[in-house]
Amino acid sequence: MNHEPRLKETELFEPVRHHFETKGFEVAAEVNHCDVVALKDSQLIVIELKKSLNMTLLTQAVDRQSLTREVFIAIPEPSKPGGKRFRAQQKVVKRLGLGLITVYQSPLRYAANIRLTPDFKGKINQRRRDQLLKEIAGRTLQRNVGGSTGIPVYTAYRESAVTLANLLMIQGPTTVSDLRQLAGEKTQSILSRNIYGWFEREARGIYKLSNTGRTEIAEYPELNALARQLLNRS
Question: What is the arrangement of strands in the sheet containing 26-31, beginning at the earlier edge strand?
Answer without folding.
Answer: 26-31, 34-40, 43-49, 71-76, 99-105, 110-116
